[in-house]
Batch of 2 targets.
Target 1
Amino acid sequence: MAENLCCLPKPQRNLSRNHNRMDFWELTVRFFSLADANVRQVIAGSILLGGAAGALGCFAYLQRRSLLGDALAHAALPGVGLAFLIVGQKEFVPLLLGATATAWLGALSINAIDRYTKIKLDAALGIVLTVFFGLGIVILTHIQKSGSGSQAGLGSFIFGQAAAMSRQDVVALAVVTVCMLSVVTIGYRHFKLVSFDTGFAFAVGLPVGRLQFILTTMIVLAVTVGLQAVGVVLMAAMLITPAAAARQWTDRLPRMLMLASIFGMLAGLFGSYISFLKPSLPTGPWIVIVVSGIFAVSILFSPRRGVLIRILRHYQHRGKITRDHLVKSLYRVGMERENWYAYYPVSEIAHMWSFTPTELRSGLSQLTAQGFLEREVDMYRLTQNGVSAGARVTRLHRLWEVYLTRYLELPGDHVHRDAEDMEHIITPEMEEQLSQMLDHPVFDPHLQPIPYPTEQKGV
Amino acid sequence: MKQYHIHNTFLSLLLILAAVTGGCAKNDQTAAKEKLSIVTTTGMIADAASIIGGDNIQVTALMGPGVDPHLYKATKGDVDQLETADLILYNGLHLEGKMVDVFENMSKSKPTVAVAAVILDSELRHPTEFQGHPDPHVWFDVSLWRMAVGAVAFEIAQLDSVNRPLYHERATVYLDSLTQLHQWVQEQMATIPEDQRILVTAHDAFGYFGRAYNIEVRGLQGISTVTEAGLYDVTAMVDLLVSQKIKAVFVESSVPKKTIEAVVEGCTSRGHKVIIGGELFSDAMGQSGTPEGTYLGMVRHNVNTIVAALR
Amino acid sequence: MIKNDRPVPIEVHDLTVAYRKKPVLWNIDFSLPEGHLIGLVGPNGAGKSTLIQAIMGLLPVLSGYVKVYGHPLEKNRQLIGYVPQRESVDWDFPVDALDVVTMGRYGHMNAFGKLSKQDREIALSALDKVGMADFAKRQISQLSGGQQQRVFIARALAQEASVYLMDEPFAGVDANTEKAIVALLKELKDRGKTCLVVHHDLHTVREYFDWVMLLNMRLVKFGPTAEIYNEENLRATYGGKLVLLAEAAEKLITKS
């Protein structure tokens, strides 16, 4: 199968770098067909990494220690240097052990600073990050100067090459992911309580210290294994961003964990995909861009907390206010003229209340569509439902005024503004309560009658 | 052959010029200190300077074996050394990308010379990806490096007019051996069969080598070691190796091996056996004290490795 | 201390606790009488919360010990129900009310985190007891202050303990919730449970608690409300910081 794959056409014998590129679709098909070993390894590695880091990051996020992964990634650097000094060669296992050792030391230091000094946790994270990283630079510079030829690229142990993930990397990541999955599944309840209420966890007899140890160890492992595959920035991003994005979509912890993993995995997959489409698109950074994009979408569009949703709801409410004012005004005018079903031209309606032209237009068309108004060319009149609606808004307004004067004992001239706001908000249940509590009053403080039609229709 | 004559004449002119102007200036400092000191950036420059300078000059290189000059940042110790030097020699053409400010500072108080600047712009490579900047890896073309060595000789002669004839003699010998080396490389490289004439390395340093010795060069990472490879680049490289049935790829002493290793893995899975033909010295020479720790030795090592693997 | 044949729920002997080198509790000595509702009262910074946390083993003690039914805390942990302060927790955490109450059963969990069906039922009935059964699936950030407090109390009830320690359960709750909590406390007392409750409203002490502990860094007075809750003792408790004692204690702690 491998031999028949379409690949780059035979390069010209000149020394120019311009060879024909495969087109977008060919590349896409080739990527998702998983035909190339490199592609398979990078996809597997980045999906495993994204999934594991996403889930682990949730607990760090909920304990407000999101930057822990970043701090530990930086703390791994001196361990790499020291391991090289001891072993004399760039060997995978010793360097990994060295990185794990100093990352662990970093974690202990953070806890010690937090517990035994007045310094707060975020400052402790920053201190450990910078001190350890500085130490690492010192050690690496020393190695640089000592002239040992085989030390090139020690520093890029930290910066990683995501596109170059080997089978070894994938296996290591798979082991870490399996460990992490089992630990999180078995200890789910324990970690949940420890993250939520440490004091109560103690009280109930959970071994809080040991549980935190396990959690931190998992993070250290993920960081050091992922580090030499993909580098510092990517590790920090994968531990923080998917969890933060997932939180926007759900209020339930199991779902948050799952979503964070999925986001991490998607970022891994699509980041790799994008870096496959054109030359010189570094894989690691593109994974970070994708996961940040997922986060941006979550912040803006999530139905619960999204910024855009809130803006949308705000405008929807304004629309309701306009519609309430329209039916209320038409009702009142109808009351005065003792004819509710007269037609009014738009220009006259515009003068009944202060509307902007846009508000007026959209309000009128919405009310017509909802069946509260009837339209004839450019004239409008209330329908029966419209009259009820107008009566209702008026009633709510006046009931509220009675409530304010009677219960809060506010003078009559103070209550109008408040009622203006409240008339749009009072629900039918509240209306019922008000009515009963006030004993179905007939007049408002300004001696205007309170309408009680038999049917109620809200706008 | 025509090129050779022009360069030879050019160099002779330089030396005559040095001899003529030399009588005028007298460097007082030479009387005050024991030995003159030259500080260079790369080991290659230091190698040339110490051969020409001999026991008369103290030569130190800031960047040792295995160091990447693109990423190298001067430490305080380095700056101190530069302060006390009588002459500073660096490659130039933006090879020592992070030391530009240091050189500017130093040039105020002592001669700070970019030895590659002596090469005419028309002789330099201007790769398209580098947006108008020339490729700084001039030492890969022995004939070009010979010109830079000439500049080193010139500067040393300028520095210490007393021992000028000594330097002239040593320089002539060394330049001759460079000429011979260039010839030898050309002969060796010609023995590689036509269909194997592709040199695949970790980064794009070998452009001059390819141009001078007629072999196509492909780097995985681009011209500087700062960039990170993308999945497209890795796969494209695997495609190239498989389709052209290239036998060997090469790692570099100063660049991480990981991407080349990934490429080898990719080829293996496609059923094409690619070996890592050996380690080449690209941005830095080998351990000092070994033959690869000198320019001549380094070039010979590289060529032998390449030829053995691809032949 | 008078030795009965039955051990007291909580015995505190000569307890001294410092927080960041400042003395907070000094030589505290008492035994809680079983089956009473005890109000813990004192000015701000008197160490009321600290005392509760020290008994729970959440704070290190400089000297003295705590015994639960005659044994050290570690042995008899499950006999204490704990209601921490509401602000000790981030209510934005993604769990619902039932989740929180179920946490009260975590002391009975095995290493694999398994809970039995019975555990779930206990949690549900505890939630029901505080009148929050309809809110079982509601995310806790969507609960009002009073509702959150009830959930916390339900969690302690789910622990099925014998003695309850509550840290300011009436802080910031509405009148209805307060009434409900008081009724619950009275019911616990009727069932023979002991409750030690940190309380800040001096006016309601007489109505709610049959015993009261007056605390201001040291134990001022401890006994039945009817006997010791009077103006003289209150003045002694609230009458300003004991400067001399505080200074001396601070020196001692720094030296040791």
Target 2
Amino acid sequence: MNDAAETPLEPTENDDLARLIEFAQIVTAGRDAMSDHIVARVAKVLTEGLNLLDSVTRNSGLMRLFQVLESEDSQALLIAIADALHQAGRDIGGAEPAAGGLGSILRTARDPNTQETLRALTTFGALVSQSLRTQYASD
Amino acid sequence: MHILVVGGGTGGTILANNLARRLAPEIRKKKVSLTLLSASDRHMYQPGLLYVAFGEMSVDELYRDEASLLSSHIDFHVDPVETFRLDQNEVLTRSGQTYEYDILVIATGSRIVPDQVPGLKEGAETFYTEAAALKLFQRLREFEGGTIAVTVDVPHKCPIAPVELIFLLHDYFKLRKIRDKVHIKYHYPIGRIHTIANVAKWAKPEFDRMNIEYETLFNMKEVDVENKVVRSEEGTETNYDLLIAVPPHRGMAVIEHNQLGVGGWIPTDRYKLTMDGHDNVYVLGDTTNLPVSKTGSAAHFEAEVVAENIAAVVKIGSPVRDYDGKVYCFIEAGHDRATYAMFDYSNPPDLKPASKPMHWFKVAYNQMYWNSVRGLL
Amino acid sequence: MAESMKVDARDTYCPGPLMELITYMKQADVGDTLELLSTDEGSAADVPEWVEKVGHELVRNEQIDGVWHITVRKAK
């Protein structure tokens, strides 16, 4: 079948035939290279992938979470948390251990960062409670 | 409404998962509860046993944790049923618990009973259990030459297995380059080499090509273990060096003990798949008395129909579909080619020529089975 | 007391009417009769062939409206 180039055909037919033969050779080569093990391994990945996708899409909590996470605000918050964790890690690691004692506690309470944190946690806590109450009420 | 599924094999698992999908809203709102009881915490892919016997699959590939296959909406317990009280709509389990139900599905499967044939248990190898398949693998590896007798008893699960076994034996010994030292003799109980006429027609020239000796109308009578002879009711006998038997089967012991059906086969309506005399009890898989092949495929298609009907009963008060007898079975024709048989109550099987891609489909299906039992395929 | 029962294997191909009959014959007692219903025309020849080879008794073999009614008595 390699005689295509020597076969006296019209130029366009010759090209198409050559291309078809090449394609057939690739398919045959692919078939020959294919083994039971390859088929089994690929099938296994696809099977597990499908199962995973099925579990995820049937998990209403995860799907709602995806929806929430799609908003830019959520993404901004996630990025903020990631940045903060990263930076805080370095700050805490580099800071002196706390001195202890009442004086130190008073100083911490007066620290604007403490008040920022408490305010963030209070807001966050209130909203989580609100969401939980709404969800359990509708069940 | 309590739906109870007894049996965590192919049929029971597919049914439970399929129902969990269809009744997800009702289960979440606690209007419906779905419970599955099984005798084992593991799920076995039974068709893999034949591959294990030829060293083509390892035992761990056969099993998965049943819990990992089930939707979280299913209440799963490894607590086999011991007593069925159908008139009171309840079952009693080994742990002493009573489960009440509104709808019951019995999918307990079938088991081999080699004891039914004198000498069979001691004298014959088989591939119908994990231990037996591993032992057969060893015997085949150690076999250097002689006569291998293959016998078939009735009824048995996976009607195509005897034919697949022959193809696999032939290719196995060819690969080991000792095929000429092995004489293979196949025995079948009726007047042709397979119960499906089209399979017998397809397989006969293949058997001739592979140099397989065969004797039809050979109904198992006994095995003379000491002298290595297998004898038939018809009065003939075959000497063997290795005997591989497809043993007779019965339904599970619990079905027989509860007298739900003679031989453990529960009388079932062939379209509605309900137990005769009990409209709220469905039966599927091997344990029915239906003249349908005892295969995972039949259990699968039956489970889809039963799930659809139970869901319809819950949602609209009545079933919606009949089982049409559909079965789809792969037929491995050796080391690297396969075909398939598809049929139902109205259409006989019509075999296509065996091919390598079909063999790959079967290899892929050995993995895709784990999608199937989740009710995905 | 000899029992009689019907084995309805109409419209089935696998394992098929004769294998169904064999299953029920094994569960039956000597003297019981089984009536096999089959829509497979092959049964008209397959079943008597098996009955004779194994050694049971063929009581009746007739076709009514496309359905073969074959009655067999368990002789051993």
